Amino acid sequence: LTLHHESREMKAYVLVIDKGGPKLHETSGAPAKSMSGTNQRGSNGTATMTGSGVGMPALAYRIAQQPAFRGGMVLDKTGLNGYYDFTLQWEAGENAGSSLITALREQLGLKLSSEKTSVDVLVIDRAEKPAEN
To answer: How would you class 2 by CB atoms within 10 Å of its CB: exposed for 0-12, middle for 13-18, buried for 19 or more?
Structure first.
């Protein structure tokens, strides 16, 4: 197996601080680093994501796991290095993507936008079947 890293311009979602500033509550004490959710893949109703002692890279990863953003990348470019406690609620179902984007802005003071950005990728140059022993 021969591979290398390279930087490529790709479309990705970028999580940044909205113009009004973050509305997150910094964790006091040792961060639990846990997240849970309800109805995030539901077809209707309210979806909820609750974080306790969560860093922004973990939040970005969890957003990328939501059905509306699956298959895409969400990059943390907030510059927030602490751990935070939050509860985020949005409408599940057909409009979950736009509802989640609005909820991030209104409830957490974060903005999720789509842009072309430089991403480090792993490129496989060659793969060979291993020889039999």
So the answer is: exposed
Residue 74 and residue 67 in contact, taking contact as beta carbons nearer than 8 Å = no
Q: Which helix (H) or strand (E) holds 58?
A: helix 56-64
The amino acid at 15:
L
Kindly report, residue by residue over 93-102, the tens digit of the pLDDT. Answer: 999 999 999 9
Q: Residues with Cβ < 8 Å from 43, sequence gap 6 or more?
A: 92, 93, 94
Residues 6 or more apart whose Cβ sits within 8 Å of residue 23: 107, 108, 109
Mean residue pLDDT of the chain comes to 93
Query: How far is Cα 58 from Cα 66, in angstroms, rounded to an integer?
Result: 13
Q: Are 56 and 104 in contact (CB under 8 A)?
A: no
Kind of pairing between the strands at 74-76 and 2-17? parallel
Q: Render pLDDT for 23-32 as a digit per residue (tens, 0 to 9).
A: 999 999 889 9
